[in-house]
Specification:
alpha/beta; Rossmann fold; 17 helices; 18 strands; 19% strand; globular
């Protein structure tokens, strides 16, 4: 099992004289005003969950958008704050964006153009000239923030996700000597889909300014190589998985992301988690034989509507399970400035109401829908309560909820129902795999999960825990760093 110390040694050997800088849109902690005081809150995000151990192990610098109501009050004049608050181990540099920039760069081009373009969820991308202009401007602003901290020192800049497709080019134009790498946390579509993007040449040119570009799966990396081969003046080497453009070579590799297995497994057994379990049991009336859970952002890629429909169909096909289970779906609101997300939230509300009206009895309501964001400890409590966790994404680069659930199940008493269209399904083959588009088969697999005997549940969970423990977040980060050092 790779550890934090292994990661530190890997980076120390390869980049001892380099400063590590991580760039992401989402910050790891936000400061907010609460009842007249400033409270520091850890951000709930798959990217943050994955990267915080990395930047902590390396005592690095994290550059991110400062969006907390009290963020400006906690930084020095350069926008720097030391984190985590209880025991500072790295620095966060916050970048300030206007409402217009957030609207165009984040809600507009990132999440109404690139997000649906890369996810096969049958939502049409929207390309607007003003959104593209804001996307370019914000990428330049982040480049300036990074360069202001690098000064004349050597640096390894690790960029995260689809918000910064242009950032590598801006950095390399100013400092060709920087080591720049990027991890694309969402899928990459096939060339026929990507070619509808109005700014495809600029995006590909930006990404090919990286020294190393990572994806979750080989399939996504192959899609990217094929896209470059068709859409841009470059030379692709399929055997070495590299693309050369303007005398610059970019290595393109798969790096399946993971979680901090050891920390999650340890924390799931903490007394505060047990206390939260008791609170949830009382709040949600979880006095049933089986507790099914779902934990997602409200997003059309997560298959929440399909999940609810499958639960309803399961009740219709197997009425003997009435009053024997409850399904708790926790959904945090996100991107509500985008009309499709508002509509989805309304659709979920309506569907939950319809299902509960159709199936409930005097003493039982099958679905409890909780619309709020859980913190880290609350998420662990929910995982502990769930006999079954349903992850039914229509398309997902990886899905860390699936891996977090496995890491939290120390007692092996849990079943993971997992969409075949997640990256996690390539690794967690002992999950009960489903096609979320096939409601009948989905409902049947819920019954398979509920009827699974204790020995099989434990065998499956033990094998999945071995997989997540071995391929943990530190191995992911170390592999990325070691591959970069070969460049």
């Amino acid at each position: 099992m790779w550890t934090k110390q292994d990661l530190y040694e890997a980076i120390g050997k390869r980049f001892a004289d380099h400063q590590l800088i991580v760039v992401s849109n989402r910050q790891p902690y936000a400061h907010h005003f609460r009842e007249g005081k400033i409270a520091c809150q850890r951000t709930v995000s798959g990217v943050v969950t994955a990267l915080q151990p990395v930047v902590t192990a390396c005592s690095g610098l994290w550059v991110a958008h400062g969006d907390g109501s009290a963020d400006r009050h906690t930084c020095d004049p350069r926008g720097i704050v030391h984190l985590p608050p209880e025991q500072p181990q790295y620095r966060l540099k916050r970048v300030w964006l206007s409402k217009e920039e957030v609207s165009g760069y984040y809600y507009g081009f990132s999440n109404e153009a690139l997000w649906p373009l890369c996810h096969i969820a049958f939502i049409r991308p929207s390309f607007r000239a003003e959104d593209w202009q804001h996307y370019q401007a914000v990428n330049r602003k982040f480049a300036e923030a990074v360069l202001s901290e690098v000064n004349d020192r050597k640096a390894f800049v690790w960029i995260q996700d689809y918000h910064f497709a242009l950032l590598p080019a801006y950095l390399k134009a100013a400092r060709p000597d920087l080591v720049v790498a990027q991890f694309w946390h969402i899928p990459w579509p096939n060339p026929e889909i990507f070619r509808i993007c109005h700014s495809r040449e600029e995006i590909l040119g930006g990404l090919l300014s990286n020294d190393l570009l990572g994806f979750h799966l080989r399939y996504h990396a192959d899609n990217f190589l094929a896209t470059c081969d068709r859409e841009i003046d470059s030379r692709t080497d399929q055997d070495r998985t590299t693309v050369t453009r303007k005398n610059h070579r970019t290595r393109v590799q798969p790096f399946p992301i993971s979680v901090d297995f050891e920390a999650i497994s340890r924390d799931a057994a903490a007394p505060e988690v047990a206390s939260l379990e008791d609170s949830f049991r009382a709040e949600f009336s979880l006095n049933f034989e089986h507790v099914l859970i779902g934990l997602d952002r409200i997003d059309y890629t997560k298959g929440i509507l399909e999940r609810l429909q499958a639960v309803s169909r399961f009740i219709e096909k197997h009425p003997e399970y009435r009053e024997r289970f409850v399904f708790v779906q926790v959904g945090s609101l996100s991107r509500m400035h985008i009309r499709r997300y508002k509509d989805l939230n309304d659709e979920i509300n309506d569907l939950v109401e319809q299902i509960n009206w159709r199936h409930s009895t005097a003493s039982w309501t099958p679905i409890t829908f909780v619309r709020r964001t859980l913190n880290y400890w609350e998420s662990l409590a929910l995982y502990q309560l769930g006999n079954i966790c349903i992850v039914s994404s229509l398309h997902d680069g990886m899905n860390l909820v699936a891996k977090e659930y496995v890491a939290a199940k120390n007692d092996l008493n849990g079943v993971l129902i997992l969409s075949r269209f997640t990256g996690a399904a390539r690794e967690l083959t002992d999950a009960v795999l489903i096609n979320p588009y096939n409601c009948e088969a989905f409902a049947d697999q819920i019954k398979v999960a509920l009827d699974m005997d204790a020995d099989e549940r434990q065998r499956r969970m033990a094998r999945m825990r071995e997989q997540v423990a071995e391929n943990n977040i530190y191995r992911w980060a170390s592999r990325f760093v070691l591959e970069l050092s070969k460049m």
